[in-house]
Automatic annotation (TrEMBL), chain A:
Subcellular location as annotated: Cell membrane
Pfam family, one: BPD_transp_1
Family (UniProt): Belongs to the binding-protein-dependent transport system permease family.
PANTHER family from the UniProt entry: ABC TRANSPORTER PERMEASE PROTEIN, ABC TRANSPORTER PERMEASE PROTEIN YESP-RELATED
UniProtKB keywords: Cell membrane, Membrane, Transmembrane, Transmembrane helix, Transport
Domain ABC transmembrane type-1: from-to ranges: 100-314
Name listed for the protein in its UniProt record: Sugar ABC transporter permease
Organism of derivation: Mesobacillus jeotgali
Matching SUPFAM superfamilies: MetI-like
TrEMBL record, chain B:
Pfam (any one): SBP_bac_1
TM spans (from-to): none
Organism domain of life: Bacteria
InterPro entries (alphabetical): Bact_solute-bd_prot1, SBP
PROSITE patterns assigned to the protein according to its UniProt record, in alphabetical order: PROKAR_LIPOPROTEIN
Name of this protein: ABC transporter substrate-binding protein
């Protein structure tokens, strides 16, 4: 048990353990240096994750890339067909275009709306008023609730004649639309639903706003700045890193919209007149309804490329407007 | 010492993880302690009503012999077939599974299901309704055995008929009569409808059913030929659109959004006087609509003598490709589709079973309204058409439905919609 021999040394800052030089020699004689041993232990500890990543993430990822060049149908076929799947998307599949349009429509509206909504809400909830904790909890609550139950709740709220939304519009003499039953209104209905859950983003903004130094606002007050000026020249630049983060993650999230349409349309069909046939829903149908896994894989990789490019553009543009305190933005 | 312990611990964790992944347990579980072969049977029948019925059938089978033990695995609707596919691909599927009747050929083509021809002879085939047996044949081989089927009937509210001055023993026989009756059965309060006599797209019926009904029972693809853009089908769509115009888009959407099942079903709640649904809709009427005095009739014919064509669906039992015990599985399938089991299923569910003798035997056991509905549905099988999805057009529904939707929403005309649908589907031919 030589390796456990060590000396306890008392220092000014406390006590620490200094191992004797014998220990190192013992390790060397066993063929592995201490560093290698440490590394080995480290890798072994993370091995569940490593195996999971290699087997369950990287493996399938590469497999789906390979499958996208074949007519793979899960059970019998896997013939190499080159770029046919990719060609088919652009030349033969009308539903591909519909689904891409619906998805882009959703991204274009949902990302700015939810970002702005979350910021406005955070500003309102950042006031020093009594009972603010209560309101913060209330507004955050919808972000905690999620999943199918919420979609069912919204289906009730959006019911044309007895739903709460149209009943409330009725108080003001407005006859509400049929929402999920009218192709003109299905996407706005989903956007409205999305706005309900901006609490998640709100919490991030609130956290960073709390960190903005009050001296800056005091200085601005002395200079006679209006509330709007304070928001525009102080708050906005200070929270810009979070805006940046929020825009990137919500863009990625919006491109992947699936559940809402799958749950809220009849048989997951994509709604009246395909108005809610989103990219991922069309992909899912190809994969699990028609078992055209090769084509679905190709669609998945195209989506990956689209999201990659958009994120890269965001990163590039981000340098212009994101303000990093105490750094040069790199 | 501590470091050494850490390494050992990590190694154990790794071994544990790998052991967890291996399929050791599975191999042991294929036989019971007393040596019976375990046959894993996947169904989506997990409801309070259905589960005891199927489990009794399984128990009876298990007690009837000493070679096979059938284990029932319930998987929720929607999950069951995705899971089946994954397990077929992984080479470890169930032994028997309940699957959709209209897509057997697809699975045969994609090698997801075992060929059962070696176990099946002509005398076995003849036990089943021929229009059902056709759906399980592909390329001259049999890939499944029909289990149950359904058909659509017109349920009508006799009390409402009397109130409207109609003869409750004379349901509408043609489309013209259906319209005439429906108008009499409507109850309007100012602008708002309190009761709608009839609307063709409510209930378990869609535009495609009416288009088939008008077109002498012809579906969208007949013997491999597209038959989508036909004059009769265009006419049927225009007919549906006229209903919508008369009632108003708002009424239709408002009613539709509030439909539910059981007490909230609009026919049971008395909000709609005539309603097309499958035979088993009767169980809801029996349990939640005790006060509803109703009658059943075939779906009205397009015109006198043109046939009361209805669309049918249903389920088959089959052996997924690569199942370990096909012989034992087939033994169980034969039991499941034989007279005794089928009769039990039928009497308890009022469901149309595929075995002809069982269907007729069930009829003799039922009484009163049970018998009335069941008899009507069995009789209706003669005018019921199955529309198996052709392998050349595996996803034709996803191309067709949006065009039908667009026409019904008034975005385009039925002529243009069906013409476009036919062109789109032609392009997708495999």
């Amino acid at each position: 048990m030589k390796s456990s021999e060590s000396t306890l040394v008392h220092t000014e800052t406390g006590s620490k353990v200094i191992r004797g030089s014998k220990t190192i020699e013992t390790a060397r004689t066993k063929g592995l240096s201490r560093k290698a041993k440490d590394n080995l232990a480290g890798y072994l500890f993370i091995s569940p994750w490593l195996i999971g990543f290699l087997g369950l993430t990287l493996g399938p990822l590469l497999f789906s890339l390979a499958a996208s060049f074949t007519d793979y149908n899960i059970t019998s076929k896997m013939n190499f067909i080159g770029l046919d799947n990719y060609k088919r998307m652009f030349t033969m599949d009308d539903l591909f275009r519909t689904s891409l349009f619906n998805t882009v429509y959703y991204v274009i509206f949902s990302v700015p709306l939810t970002t702005a909504g979350a910021i406005v809400l955070a500003v309102l909830l950042n006031q020093k008023i009594k009972g603010m904790k209560f309101f913060r909890t209330i507004y955050y609550l919808p972000a905690v609730l999620s999943g199918v139950a919420v979609y069912f709740l919204w289906m009730q709220l959006l019911s044309p004649s007895t739903g709460l939304v149209n009943t409330m519009l009725g108080w003001f003499g407005i006859e509400g639309p049929a929402w999920l039953f009218d192709p003109e209104w299905t996407k706005p209905a989903l956007l409205m639903m999305k706005m309900w859950s901006v609490g998640g983003g709100m919490l991030l903004y609130l956290a960073i706003m709390q960190g903005v130094s009050p001296q800056m606002y005091e200085a601005a007050d002395i200079e006679g700045a209006s509330p709007w000026q304070k928001f525009y020249y102080i708050t906005l630049p200070m929270i810009s890193p979070i805006i940046f983060f929020d825009v990137i993650t919500s863009t990625i999230g919006a491109f992947q919209i699936f559940q809402e349409a799958y749950v809220m349309t009849e048989n997951g069909s994509g709604g009246p007149g395909n108005s809610l046939l989103f990219y991922n829903l069309h992909m899912w149908n190809n994969a699990f309804e028609v078992f055209d896994m090769g084509y679905a894989s190709a669609m998945a990789w195209l989506l990956f490329i689209i999201v990659m490019v958009l994120t890269a553009v965001n990163m590039k543009l981000g340098k212009r407007w994101v303000h990093y305190e105490g750094g040069d933005g790199k | 010492m501590k470091r050494g312990l850490a390494v050992i611990l990590a190694v154990f964790m790794l071994i544990g993880l790998l052991a967890g992944c291996s399929g050791e347990q599975k191999a042991e579980a294929e036989k019971t302690k007393d040596g019976k072969v375990i046959v894993d049977f996947w169904t989506f029948w997990g409801s309070e009503t259905r589960r005891p019925i199927i489990e009794k059938i399984i128990d009876d089978y298990n007690n009837s012999q000493d070679k096979v033990f059938v284990k029932h695995t319930f998987l929720p609707w929607g999950d069951i077939w995705t899971k089946n596919l994954a397990s077929v691909a992984a080479g470890n599927p169930a032994d028997v599974i309940v699957n959709d009747i209209n897509t057997v050929a697809q699975r045969a083509e994609n090698k997801q299901v075992e060929d059962l021809s070696q176990y099946i002879d002509d005398s076995f085939k003849q036990k089943f309704y021929p229009h059902l047996w056709e759906t399980v044949e592909y390329d001259g081989k049999s890939y499944a055995v029909p289990f149950n089927t359904d058909t659509r009937l017109l349920f009508y509210n006799k009390t409402a008929f009397k109130e409207a001055g109609l003869d409750p023993e004379k349901p509408p026989a043609t489309w013209a009569e259906l319209e005439e009756y429906a108008k009499k059965l409507d109850i309007k309060n100012g602008d708002k409808y309190e009761r709608v006599g009839f609307y063709p797209l409510w209930g378990s019926v869609g535009a495609s059913s009416w288009m088939t009904n008008a077109d002498d029972g012809n579906g969208f693809i007949e013997d491999g030929e597209l038959s989508i853009n036909t004059p009769k089908k265009v006419e049927a769509m225009n007919w549906i659109i006229d209903w919508k115009k008369r009632l108003g888009e708002k009424t239709v959407q408002a009613f539709q959004a509030e439909f539910g099942s059981e007490q909230a079903n609009p026919f049971i709640a008395g909000k709609v006087a005539m309603w097309v649904d499958v035979g088993t809709f009767y169980t809801q009427l029996r349990d939640y609509g005790q006060d509803v005095e109703f009658g059943v009739a075939p779906i009205p014919a397009y015109e006198e003598g043109s046939g009361n064509w209805a669309e049918g669906g249903g389920f088959v039992v089959e052996i997924p490709k690569g199942a370990k015990h096909p012989e034992e599985a087939m033994d169980f399938i034969k039991y499941l589709t034989d007279v005794e089991a089928q009769k039990h299923w039928s009497v308890k569910n009022y469901d149309n079973v595929a075995n002809i003798e069982a269907a007729e035997a069930a009829l003799n056991e039922l009484q009163g309204p049970d018998k009335m509905v069941y008899e009507a549905s069995v009789k209706n099988l003669e005018q019921t058409k199955m529309f198996p999805v052709p392998v050349e057009y595996p996803d034709y529904h996803s191309r067709l439905n949006p065009h039908i939707d667009n026409a019904l929403l008034g975005k385009t005309t039925p002529e243009k919609a069906l013409k476009q649908a036919e062109e789109d589907i032609e392009k997708m031919k495999k």
